[in-house]
């Protein structure tokens, strides 16, 4: 051994080196413990919903509106003839494999019927299951994270009372290893789950309402923003499109020359209502579903607010978004 040490010109550690060695050992252990907590006990890090949420009175009519504007059915209903609403089964392609949307009907055994309001709130806004596990972000809780308490309560009341329970589990997911390990999502969420608005330029009550409709409920940015290699949305390129050839391409919809600058307000409103583009063609694919499930349900006032919001996404200063940190 000493022969090998000599050949490699290894010297015994100095006192200072030994100290550094021990200190980095401690740091590594601490960060390991921290990672384990994040991964396995998410509620230590993320503040769960306040019990106050139970005292709110549900408004089922608003719940129906929120249900549509947030597009739950776009993913949780299989869009094939005879499919039952929210019964799950739709296969969602993610860069990491196929996920199957679960049954979220009010059935107590196969769906979410037995859940409390708080459990529902934590699943939808924090991606944490009643058992304390992390959901994959294909469930767009990174957008829903800013949903108001009242909207959550109303949405749950609507699903509980107006959607028929379906006593059948949706088939299990099929993710590639290591993404099949849920614990890892904890670290991801630490990086990408926050409750900050995505843009800094939104001013005025109407545009702020539009921001809530587009960023939070409509989760438009989930598809229309490019992502980094870890699958997190790049804030500085918010809504600026995902080029063809990449996973899930979607056009730039910011108020810029490459986006929707040349659209009139009327063209925007017609698009949101029917999916018709300024050139007279209709949008297709996933966006046709978004129009059907989400934007066609906007009230006139809210459609105006959404357009106002998109108008604020200019590229003055080269970016429409808040600083990445
Ligand atoms: C873009 C697709 C998509 C949309 C939109 C969506 N979900 Fe989901 N949802 C999923 C996926 C995928 C999962 C499973 C995640 C996992 O297994 O980690 C899920 C999981 C859930 C769960 C957990 C179910 C369980 O059995 O643990 C609930 C509750 C839920 N969604 C409710 C909703 C509600 C309410 C809405 C509308 C506000 C909604 N989802 C919108 C894709 C979506
Ligand atoms: C599930 C992914 C997805 C979501 C969510 C989504 N979009 Fe789209 N969007 C697309 C795709 C894909 C296209 C291109 C469709 C096509 O090829 O016709 C598109 C096209 C569009 C276009 C047409 C742009 C053009 O220049 O042709 C507009 C405008 C638009 N989306 C607005 C929205 C708004 C507003 C929301 C939120 C309410 C939204 N999208 C949410 C995927 C999505």
Automatic annotation (TrEMBL):
GO MF: electron transfer activity; heme binding; iron ion binding; oxidoreductase activity, acting on CH-OH group of donors
Record keyword Lipid biosynthesis present: no
Location in or out of the cell: Cell membrane
Keyword ATP-binding attributed: no
Annotated GO CC locations: plasma membrane
Keyword terms: Cell membrane, Heme, Iron, Membrane, Metal-binding, Repeat, Signal, Transmembrane, Transmembrane helix
TM ranges: 21-46
Residues in Cytochrome c domain copies: 58-163, 205-314
Protein name: Diheme cytochrome c-553
